[in-house]
Amino acid sequence: MTARTDESEAVVEIVNEGEPIPADVLPFIFEPFRQAKPRESAATGNLGLGLYIAKQIVISTGGTLDARSIDRTTTFMVRLPRTRFVAEERRSEAPPSARRPQRRDDAPPDREAV
Q1: What is the pTM of this model?
Q2: How far apart are CA 73 and CA 68, in angstroms?
Q3: Is 114 a member of any domain?
């Protein structure tokens, strides 16, 4: 696994060495419950939901998830846009008591610390 970032995106690559994903199956691996040919399938013949769910999560963030399979190496590449979190802005506008949990010595003098 490798990860890198630049100004616009974060990229994570996961590499798996072993049997390649057949070229005629590769375009469909992110579809739910896609059936592989018996010679290419797991015991159930089902590619399942895992890759479909992963792709939907990545898409929901504005990113992409792609796969390539060459020789005995399959690579999954996740690209996620880098954005500034609105939560950070909201936290800076919040009163000090909402920014972080209070410690015992931070308790206001008129309130008993829990």
Answers
A1: 0.62
A2: 8
A3: no
